[in-house]
Amino acid sequence: MVSAPGAAAGALAGGALAVTAWHIGPAATWLPGLRTAYFPGLDGRGAPGRVALTFDDGPDPLSTPHFLRALEALRVRATFFVLGSRLERAPELGRRMVAAGHEVAVHGWEHDRPWLPRPGRDAAELARAAAAVQRITGRRPLWYRPPYGILTGGRWAAARRTGLRPVLWSAWGRDWTASATPDGVVAEAAARLGPGGTLLLHDSDAYAAPDSWRVTLAALPHLVAYCRGLGLEVGRLGDHGHPGSGVPYGFPGRAG
Predict the structure, then answer these.
(1) Out of 56, 175, 203, 205, which one is annotated catalytic?
(2) 3-state helix, strand, coil in the chain (%, to 5)
């Protein structure tokens, strides 16, 4: 017979395991093969004649204006996933993005890794970031991409509560690394980017190798030319015919 203290300890251990599974389990969607096969919405898959161009980690007064000018020259509108704390320090950049026809989405309040369950804090910070975007830009954000692409149970539930659709990416340029080069960014993106894909780039080096944004900026015209050479229109995620977050049964925040 199991003693009362033993049963209580077992129940506590079981509860802790359940919380951990709820928190960490959805983070498996970081794996690109899993997203591509099972969660096309979360993978950023949209209309086959388009590519969604997205930027993370800004706004950055040092680098973001260069991207805004480059996109204007290329006649491309993009989606910027901004951090609420950085947007509040540079609100004029958020307003410039919207004035230029770009889309402003939510990357969180701070750029942190969610190793421990903290659903209350996740909900409060995501709501704060979304409110900052709406207040500063005058537009309600639609999309949420968590820092590092780690979509935990708490953050998925927070996105649902805030009315945001989680989306990661179909391809990236690995443009945040110290070894990145413009040619390498283009090659890395082209290896996975195709019709209906969503491309992840960075308009800031705040959480990347110093000056890595300059590599991204140099690669940008070549990436746009590559997509156009495939007959793909480059634009915002909101124009992508995106089906939503692709949340499966049993995952936090599922539809239905």
Answers:
(1) 56
(2) 50, 15, 40
Q: Which of 23, 107, 202, 240 is catalytic?
A: 202
Place of tokens 């889309």: 103
Distance separating alpha carbons of residues 91 and 132, to the nearest angstrom = 9
Question: Phi/psi at 83 (nearest 5 deg)?
Answer: -90, 130
Closest of 184, 115, 190 to residue 147, by C-alpha: 115
Q: Which amino acid is at 96?
A: R
- As given in the structure block, the two tokens for residue 161 are 């509560």
8: confidence class by pLDDT, cuts 50, 70, 90: very low
Instruction: Report residue 210 as tokens.
Output: 């110093």
Catalytic annotation on 202? yes
pLDDT per position as a tens digit, 31-56: 777 787 778 889 999 999 999 999 99
Distances (CA, A) of 236 to 28, 50, 51, 102, 143: 26, 9, 8, 7, 11
Strand intervals (E) in 132-254:
143-144, 165-166, 171-172, 198-202, 233-235
Work out the angle between the directed axes of helices 64-74 and 91-99 (0-180°, nearest 10): 0
